[in-house]
Each structure stands twice: as C-alpha cells, then as structure tokens.
C-alpha cells in the first residue's frame, strides 16, 4: 500500500484494486471524494504521480472540467453581446491608407502606410463605407476583411461635407457579409450601443456603452455642420473612425466619426453620424459618384472673423463668381476701394424669411432646398436692407 499525507491532513491510498480517501482514518464516499478532489485542485494540493488510483484520477479530472465549465458560465446579457459581436464582426473592415514616397537610398517610388481606420461592408457588390477623413490624404487604400483577406480598394465617391466616403473591392460575393441596416429614428438616451472598429490598429475591437445624447452637431472636414449626430460613451479611439455603432439587435445606427478629447484618446464622449443620414448619402454616391447640393454661388467670411469687423449677425459675402446665381441676382462681394479702403459686401440675413445668424444657419437652411429651387435672399447692403431672388444651382464638388 502506498500513501501520501498532505498539509491539510488528507491521506489518499490505493490498494486492493480500489481507491479510498481517508481523513484521519475515515473512509469517504464517492461524493465526498469529489468534494475533496475539488478542494485539492482549488487549494493547490500536490499529489505525486502513481499515488492516486484510476478512479480517483478520473474523479479529479471530472471535477477540474466541472470547475472550468463553471468559470465560463455566461449570463443572458453576456451571451447576447457575444452573439452580436460574432455575427457583426465579418461585416467590419480594416482600412489601411498609403501615401507615395521614395526609399531613402534610391529614387524608387514606394507606398508608405499613412494611417488606419475602420469601415463596414455595405452590400454584396463590395462597397465599403468609411469616413472621408480616413482616406482624405491617401493615394491608395487596402481593405482587410475579417477572414484576413486583403484587397486593393477603389474610390467610388465621397461627401466631404458629411465626412462620408465609399470604396469598392473586387471580392467574391460569397465572402462578403453586408452589415445589417437599422434606423436612427426613435433612439432613446440610455439605450445600449456597441462600437466595433480598429482602435490604434487593434483590429475588431468591441466597446460598449449607451446613447448619451441626441441631436448633437459637429463640423465636417470642410467646416460644414453635420446635424442630428448621436453621442455615445462607448469608447471610440483613433482607428475607430468609420466603424459601425450598433444597437442591441446588432443593427447599425450610426458610423463612428469623432471624439471630444483634449488628449486625443477616448474620454467617454464620442460621436456617430446617424444611419438615416448615411443611407441617402451612400446610395447617391454609389449611383452618381458624387453628391449634388444646392448653392447660392458665393464665398463667405467665417463668422469668427466677421465678428471682429463689427458684424454681429449674418454672413458676409467675400466674392461672387461670374455666372453664379448670386452674380445673376446682383449680389455684391467685398472689395477694396482706392487708397486701400475695404468696402464690405452684402450680408445675408435670411433665406425665405428664415433667419441666418452665421454660416452654420446658412448651410442648414440650404439643405431644405433642391437644385433649381427659387428663393428670396434678405441682405444688408451698407445701411440699407433689401431682398433679391435667385435660383439655386448645383454644387461643383
């Protein structure tokens, strides 16, 4: 008979073809053996090889397996989040951009990685949606799908005013999983949100949070306002731009775009372009390759600068290009008179009696119209007020 006594007084012996656990000379039943085996495993009891018989070793192995299963037991919410991530991840893309350059010791032109971001599969035709600022300065872009396949991407079109870009890859339709499209209507502050992206180059990262606010406003790369933006506290970091913001059903409700942070890292205040805004832009870019918006046909001075000139409200016209709707209507830009004196141009105060306090108001009001619409522009010219009518034309971008 062989035996071993541990530090807790447990003695395990084998003999006669059967295994018996003895504590201070007391034989133990199978259930007690399971319990003691669990204690031995959890407490780190070392048992030399050959001491335990076959049944005892099987008992301890079974208890160890039970313990492992126990630690992986998930509640309903955890299971739902895991399922959401696993179902959506194949729809999320990793965007790598490149800029042209030369090797240090030769004149050979090479592609130099210039940045990374996120995107998502829009349809089975290989369209990938991301932020315009992700690809803004790039000469080339590559898309890495969840299965690690890498594709060269072509630019279909972009809308810099709304920070949206559409790329396309030549991939087997069977390998593409378009993201599930939801709606940004009727969102409620406090409902769960899930952001999937590639922060700091760490591909397919999931962060969770809630809708923190609605109806926010942010500026696009061109300075134009993007309205009805979703605010979330799901962690959004550099590299998350262009990735999807999901609801608890795994449907996209917005595209992660920017954060408010003095440090540049997540501070719990992230912003996403609502999917209802995104849908119309993406579909038009796929159809036409560009976005056509109605314009007056002027260049203007930003309100932060015009205020320094004593202009408390309205938009100061700097220039009126020849042939533009503004020129045809007789609007006047800012000019310089003799001896260098600056003569201020017309100041736009309203469009169809809708007040214009600054350029943000101007863009918001124009979004209510279509190319070819006739509008009345209220202006101040010197000390006089006037109204001119013009027909909105299509933007050239």
* Gross geometry: elongated
* SS class: alpha+beta
Number of strands: 26
Unreliable residue runs: 1-30, 36-69, 105-110
Summarize the SSE layout with pairings.
Elements: E1 2-5, E2 10-15, E3 18-23, E4 26-27, H1 30-42, H2 54-71, H3 76-88, E5 92-102, E6 109-121, E7 127-130, H4 132-135, E8 140-144, E9 150-159, E10 164-168, E11 192-197, E12 205-219, E13 225-232, E14 244-246, E15 252-259, E16 270-274, H5 275-288, E17 294-295, E18 299-301, H6 303-306, E19 315-319, H7 325-329, E20 335-336, E21 342-343, E22 347-351, E23 354-355, H8 359-366, E24 374-381, E25 384-391, E26 393-394
Antiparallel strand pairs: 1-2, 2-3, 3-4, 5-6, 5-8, 6-7, 7-10, 8-9, 9-10, 11-12, 11-14, 12-13, 13-16, 14-15, 15-16, 17-26, 18-19, 19-22, 20-21, 22-23, 22-24, 24-25
Helix pairs in contact: 1-2
Q: Top keywords for this entry?
A:
397 residues, six-stranded antiparallel barrel, single chain, alpha+beta
In short:
With 397 residues, this protein is of the alpha+beta class. The protein contains eight helices and 26 strands. Mean pLDDT is 80; it is low at 1-30, 36-69 and 105-110.
What does this structure look like?
There is one protein chain. By secondary structure, the chain is an alpha+beta fold. It is built from eight helices and 26 strands. The strands form six sheets. Strands 5-6-7-10-9-8 form a six-stranded antiparallel barrel. A six-stranded antiparallel beta barrel has the order 11-12-13-16-15-14. Strands 18, 19, 22, 23, 24 and 25 form a six-stranded antiparallel beta sheet that branches. Strand 5 (92-102) and strand 6 (109-121) form a beta hairpin. Helix 1 crosses helix 2. The longest helix has 18 residues, at 54-71.
